[in-house]
Design brief:
Distance between the termini: 33 Å
Number of helices: 14
Largest sheet: 4 strands, parallel
Shape: globular
Order of helices and strands: HHEEHHEHEHHHHEHEHHEHEH
Helix content: 40-55%
Strand content: 5-15%
Number of strands: 8
Length: about 400
């Protein structure tokens, strides 16, 4: 296929947290607000005069200093984020809105005010305690946490307008981005898509790490380009897979799977579009803030949710994606030392394989792609099994 016009530009934007568009927004006087987890509603960090920046640590090959504070037995993602902060990679931020998604995540976020790695006089850190269920009591608690530790600090420390009108405007503008990403992602449903999983991964990531107002024109142009892009004469992959699990913010991981022969047609993982790009609906008589809280608590697929209904929701969501995007199987990954997703991966593998009859490959990964020989071997063996199954008519 012909190269996408903005792909190289998008790839360059992902090389640093403070990329060209982030710097431009800061120069325009906007408030840069960092976050690590879906539990912090992205839309609330895009109130008028603000922009969200989901934290990554691209090209982080060593966490030696962070290891001193957190030990090597902690999640490599949180160590990489702390390492990058100590290196000065997030000095553009005015705030970090953290969530106690797990003990390692909270400990990393605590270090943002314990050792003060972000050299910005405006910078502050606040951490919410997210619920572990999806019922009404949990929703009320979630709303209280977000109001106390997100909205009120934005108003009191940065002078941000947190009125219902301002939140409605943020919802409308965010929904425009979500619709764009969803429409681009839906091209992957085709028998012979005009976009690869790697390309979509890059596009999804830039929509999370760049100011929405500045990245939107590029996304709109890319969508129009895809509408007339011609696919390969023949589907160039041996199988189609859904990539499911914990944190994946390196498009090279998706590229690794695709170079092994399987197109990644659905991205249900942290930093993926499922969840994060569903349109937020505000009900009649409902405040914008209540709608945002309800939306995020319902759509969250975090393995931290231990209630039976949320566990079943996670499995049903993957089953839906497999059907809608015509995936032949699921690659289920978890970040090394990730306790919640390690448990979830074992349970999900059993459910997918034995109950839903969906082939499943489980792997554990580091944050940075280093020696990939073992992963490549696992992926190639799994893809070969999927290919054989397709040849044999699904048996």
């Amino acid at each position: 296929m012909k190269d996408l016009k903005h792909l190289i530009y998008f790839e360059n934007l992902l090389q640093d947290a403070q990329n060209e568009l982030v710097s431009k927004a800061v120069e325009q006087g906007m408030h840069p607000l960092g976050y690590n987890c879906y539990y912090i509603p992205e839309v609330l960090l895009n109130l008028p005069g603000c922009f969200s920046s989901r934290l990554r640590a691209p090209r982080c090959n060593s966490t030696d200093v962070a290891n001193y504070y957190m030990t090597t037995r902690n999640c490599p993602y949180v160590r990489a984020i702390l390492e990058r902060a100590i290196e000065g990679g997030y000095n553009y931020l005015e705030a970090l809105f953290g969530a106690e998604g797990c003990a390692a995540m909270e400990r990393m976020e605590e270090h943002f005010f314990l050792i003060n790695p972000v050299k910005n006089e405006k910078f502050f850190t606040t951490i919410i305690d997210p619920p572990m269920k999806g019922d009404k009591t949990s929703l009320d608690y979630y709303k209280a946490q977000l109001r106390l530790k997100v909205l009120e600090p934005l108003r009191d420390k940065l002078g941000v307008d947190i009125s219902d009108e301002a939140i409605r405007k943020a919802v409308e503008q965010s929904n425009e981005i979500y619709r764009l990403i969803t429409e681009i992602g839906n091209f992957r449903k085709a028998d012979n898509p005009v976009i690869t999983g790697y390309e979509f991964h890059v596009i999804q990531l830039v929509s999370q790490v760049c100011p929405h107002t500045l990245i939107k024109p590029y996304l709109e142009e890319t969508l129009e380009e895809l509408k007339t892009r011609q696919p390969e004469p023949k589907f160039p992959f041996r199988a189609r897979v859904a990539l499911v699990g914990s944190e994946v913010d390196d498009p090279e991981f998706t590229k690794l799977i695709e170079t092994c022969g399987a197109m990644v047609v659905a991205d249900r993982y942290c930093f993926g579009s499922f969840p994060s790009r569903e349109v937020i609906e505000i009900g009649e008589g409902e405040s914008a803030f209540d709608a945002v809280c309800r939306h995020y608590l319902y759509w969250s697929q975090c393995a931290r949710f231990m209630s039976g209904d949320k566990i079943e929701q996670r499995h049903k969501e993957v089953e839906r994606l497999v059907k809608e995007f015509k995936a032949d199987g699921v690659i289920y990954e978890n970040m090394k030392f990730c306790e919640f997703w390690s448990y979830e991966k074992v349970l999900a593998s059993h459910v997918f394989t034995n109950e839903l009859k969906i082939p499943c490959c489980t792997i554990e990964k580091e944050y940075s792609l280093g020696a990939v020989g073992q992963l490549r071997t696992r992926f190639q063996a799994f893809i070969e099994a999927l290919e054989i199954k397709n040849i044999q008519g699904g048996s």
